[in-house]
Specification:
This protein has one domain: MetI-like fold (Orthogonal Bundle). It is mostly helical. It has 14 helices and no strands. 71% of the residues lie in helices and 0% in strands.
């Protein structure tokens, strides 16, 4: 297994360029990435990666095969006997996506709801966490270390402990505002995605700030100092140097956050209100399972529908994800 490490592009906000400092910074990052590349491309790492890939892919492949099999075939034989007991149908997807019966709810609208929840709930914490990580790493102010420790300590607070306080805050402040907006503009529904966005953003910020801070703080100091000597302001440093260099780490955090929000059920159950206008795909999948988990043909089709978008997101950002793993491992 081999992977390529792209050369580091160090943008400059303007002014005279200190070529020596930039070359030293670039050579340092490239040398560290080269050492990590050699460690990760050893024979043992390749064998381990292949074993993990096979174990990770088999259940997904079985789910995919079962989603096209009739109900009687799923109940009588396993998916690995597909060549001995062939039988394919698109009826499972038709029932799941288009049917509106109680036992097989229509998932099309809830699929859109999941997108409407996951995309903003990924963008909001990324924007806030990137700015906070940059401030903690390169802007020195009184109490910054203590504040960063407090942010880091928030990771140990279980999500379940914060649900009741958040519900109380939303009931006191947010819901009256939503109700007044609905009375003023009836076209805007009283139930909105705002509570779910806020909840996911709050729960994501501590870990996102910690991960991005570790990456941004490893940017060579020569680059930051050279840009400051050239007259770059803190905003120019952030937008023209920090963000381009931290893009692999930002993409990696975005992948984890999107997949976590997309697969979330607890926050959706608590803050969506259970209405069709706001409920995500996972909530309808839980209702589709029922109390006995019957009708496997619909469950497999619905589960694979829910897997499609995370797979697309991961493979679209895979190159940034690999760079983030390599760059994050170059410390030392």
């Amino acid at each position: 297994m081999s992977s390529s490490v792209a050369p580091v592009d160090l943008p400059v906000p303007g002014g005279d360029r200190d070529d020596d400092s930039y070359r030293r910074a670039e050579s340092t990052v490239t040398a560290k990435a080269g050492r990590v590349k050699r460690r990760m491309t050893s024979r043992g790492a390749t064998v381990a990666a292949l074993v993990i890939a096979v174990l990770w892919t088999l259940p997904t492949f079985g789910l995919f095969i079962s989603s096209f099999r009739p109900a009687e075939e799923i109940l009588d034989t396993g998916w690995w006997t597909i060549f001995q007991n062939p039988g394919f149908t698109l009826g499972n997807y038709q029932e799941v996506l288009l049917s509106s019966s109680l036992s097989s709810p229509q998932l099309g609208a809830y699929f859109v709801n999941s997108l409407a929840i996951a995309i903003p709930a990924t963008i909001f914490p990324l924007v806030i966490a990137t700015m906070a990580a940059y401030a903690f790493a390169w802007i020195k102010f009184r109490g910054s270390n203590l504040l960063f420790i407090l942010v880091f300590a928030l990771q140990i607070v279980p999500l379940q402990m914060a649900l009741i306080p958040l519900l109380q805050m939303f009931s006191q402040f947010l819901r009256p505002i939503q109700a007044s907006i609905h009375e003023t503009i009836p076209m805007i529904p009283e139930q909105s995605y705002l509570p779910v966005w806020i909840a996911h953003t709050i729960f994501a910020l501590p870990l996102a700030i910690f991960l991005l801070h570790n990456f941004i703080s490893e940017i060579p100091g020569e680059v930051i100092e050279a840009a400051r000597v050239d007259g770059a302001s803190p905003s120019q440093l952030f937008f023209r140097i920090v963000i381009p260099l931290a893009l692999p780490a930002i993409a990696s955090v975005a992948i984890f956050q999107f997949i976590w929000v997309w697969n979330d059920l607890l926050v959706a159950l608590i803050f969506s209100g259970g209405t069709q206008d706001v409920a995500p795909l996972t909530q309808r999948l839980a209702e589709l399972v029922g109390s006995r988990g019957q009708e496997w043909q619909r469950l497999t089709a619905a589960a694979f529908v829910s897997v499609i978008i995370p797979l697309i997101v991961f493979f679209s950002l895979q190159r940034y994800f690999v760079r983030g793993l390599l760059a994050g491992a170059t410390k030392g």
